[in-house]
Amino acid sequence: MKIPMLDLTEQYQSLKPDIVKALDEVMGSSHFILGENVRKLEADVASYSNVRYGIGVANGSDALHIALLACGVGPGDEVIAPAFTFFATAGAIARAGATPVFVDIDPLTFNIDAGQIVSALTDRTKAIIPVHLYGQTADMDPIIALAHKYKLHIIEDAAQAIGSQYKERKTGQLGTAACFSFFPTKNLGAYGDAGMIVTDSEELAEKMRVLRVHGSKPKYYHHVLGYNSRLDELQAAILNVKFPHLERWNELRRDKAGIYSQLIRERLSEEHVKAPLVGKHDEHTFHQYTLRVKNRDALQQFLKENDIETMVYYPKPLHLQPVFEYLGYSEGDLPETELACKEAISLPMFPELSIEQQQEVVGKIQAFYEGAV
Ligand SMILES: *Cc1c(COP(=O)(O)O)cnc(C)c1O
Q1: What is the predicted pLDDT for the residue at 66?
Q2: CA torsion 208→212→214→217, rounded to 10°?
Q3: What CA–CA distance (Å, rounded) separates 103 from 143?
Q4: What's the confidence (pLDDT) of residue 371?
Q5: Which atom of ligand 1 is nearest to the CA of 85?
Q6: What is the pLDDT of residues 2-18, one digit of tens each?
Q7: Domain residues of the chain, as ranges?
Q8: What CATH number should be reported for the domain whose range is 245-372?
Q9: In this structure, how many other beta carbons lie within 10 angstroms of the beta carbon of residue 218?
Q10: pLDDT > 60? residue 373
């Protein structure tokens, strides 16, 4: 039995007639750029997030970049972010001309350690990007309090966390703006690149809309330097078919996560494998089901030999990436981040994963540790 990290084929088969019809309608209309499908998705995702505006952009990375620019972040500014995240979080800060300032993570949740943010603040700090990693929200109340006190913007990196909740508030309404990615592997995935920013600020929404079309307003008149970063109409048509299923898919992911955690508790020792902790305030959406394990690389190799695919998100922290060498960080600066890079491993996770597949995955992990001790 070969078990992939993610298998999108069953989902496509179940939605195929609707998707084909939606694509055919767009192609028949010849309206390919910023049409009614983009507008519908923007309205739906904004209202799902309980805010007024959605701005469809080309991908989640551009969403972060454009959100920062709209908030006025630029050269000379500092933006606080975790280093245990996908590259785009910090890439967007640097692309805006600002300086990423990395803060270590809470080892229990893998998210930014809110208690350490205050000591990273300077009079140049302009914004904080909490990342809701793996589908679990960062600890937002202390971050919101700090942002309020020091007049900082919060830009949620919610690329992995559409539908997740913090104290009964959905991602998307926990800061100045929030960024979603519809990369194919995300919980709501397009069939190519796509992304969205949501915000409750009319002024920021307007700036973002201008930035995604070359800074043009009115058309062919440019007061700011913008980009060509639009959410494609065909991708929006696909996402409109998928969006009504998102809550159910997230629920299924939570069910699968519960099954994994139960199997792990029954069969494995805490000494070898730690199941993910779900904070009592969180509605986790398990974009990834991520363990902390001993002897990670050997376990991954063993699982691979047994036809079980796993992934390491992320093997190298951002503060030690060569492209950020100029920031002057060195090994040891963010100990929890560096440890997580050595211990984290994500198991196959998707709504259609079967119980037999989950039993097989945990059984093989058990075989590894029983053989190894
Ligand atoms: C996927 C992802 C992004 C970027 O999204 P793209 O649509 O791939 O550009 C940003 N941040 C995090 C945490 C992500 O997982």
Answers
A1: 98
A2: -50
A3: 12
A4: 85
A5: 13
A6: 999 999 999 999 999 99
A7: 9-244, 245-372
A8: 3.90.1150.10
A9: 6
A10: no
